[in-house]
Design brief:
about 290 residues; alpha/beta; Rossmann fold; 9-stranded mixed β-sheet; two-stranded antiparallel ribbon; about 35% helix; globular; Lipase, class 3; Sec_MonoDiacylglyc_Lipase
Length: about 290
């Protein structure tokens, strides 16, 4: 496969997640609606999949990820990592459920601007070509592993991802919808737009109530690719304010005021929060706090 030449942008290095173990929420494997425990663990798994074998090997470090997870929940059984070209993901096995977690990339800025922003037609609509290819790079291995685990012990499936990983989660869910294969729910964090408007309408008619898209304050990645190119977001919208409150389907005026407030605060602190707000750690902190306004 030809390599992709992209300019890297800075991504925060992985830091172990610190918390009070007594506050760790549990997953509700069969709850398709919005759930604080499910949101926390999906953000946690989206973070863990960033753990790599080494500085020069981007493959998910299966042993370290599993060890990290078992510190908080002994029910985790295995981690199956996949890496191909610039795409990485892991199928994480728990005694009570399975989760496919897709990783973001430090090459995302270039993905959003290059020719891959044109769409490709497949399944029941049109999808961002670059995001589609990233999913295709890892999907065969993930799907094979998923079928193997389900044959031995059927369990509910969750899908999650941060950044580019969120866009890949969109397309993975679309594949399952198209094949009429069940999944419990999808949680994404800081994802870009991945489908065209008409495709979004079809997708939302099928599973908006079990797809939860989190957007943190001034996260710039959520605004690309541009609407002018015909792209649209999908799923139920959860907005995280500058005060780390979670708002469901927040209005445009509220988001604008909060955006200005967050931007002014960042300037006063001599920093710009467009990139900082994209960090998975900030998403994880907000869903762990779970100050849900509704």
């Amino acid at each position: 496969m030809p390599t992709r030449d992209h300019t890297a942008v800075e991504i925060s290095p992985y830091q172990p997640h610190a918390h009070d173990k007594q506050t760790v929420k549990a997953v509700s494997p069969y709850k398709t609606g919005l759930d604080a425990g499910n949101a926390y663990w999906m953000a946690r798994l989206a973070k863990e999949v960033y753990v790599s074998d080494s500085e020069h090997n981007s493959s998910p470090d299966e042993e370290r990820i599993l060890a990290n997870l078992k510190e908080d929940d002994k029910g985790f059984v295995s981690v199956f990592g996949v890496s191909c070209n610039s795409a990485q993901a892991a199928l994480i096995e728990h005694q009570n459920y399975l989760c496919i977690a897709f990783r973001g990339t430090d090459e995302l800025a270039d993905w959003l601007d290059n020719l891959n922003a044109f769409s490709t037609n497949d399944l029941f609509g049109a999808f961002h070509r670059g995001f589609w290819q990233s999913l295709e790079d890892v999907w065969p291995s993930l799907n094979e592993r998923f079928r193997y685990l389900q044959q031995h012990k059927p369990r509910p499936l969750f899908i999650t991802g941060h950044s580019l990983g969120g866009a890949m989660a969109t397309i993975a869910a679309a594949k399952l919808v198209h094949e009429d294969k069940p999944f419990t729910s999808v949680y994404t964090f800081g994802q870009p737009r991945a489908v065209t408007r008409e495709t979004a309408r079809i997708f939302n008619a099928e599973c908006k109530s079990r797809y939860f898209r989190f957007h943190n304050n001034n996260d710039i990645v959520t605004r690309a690719p541009a609407r002018l190119m015909g792209y649209s977001h999908i799923g139920s919208y959860l907005y995280i304010s500058s005060e780390q409150q979670v708002h469901q389907e927040a209005g445009l005026w509220f988001k604008f005021i909060d955006y200005v407030d967050g931007a002014v605060s960042a300037l006063l602190e001599e920093g710009i929060d467009l990139v900082e707000d994209h960090d998975i750690d900030n998403y994880l902190a907000a869903v762990e706090k779970w100050d849900f306004v509704g």
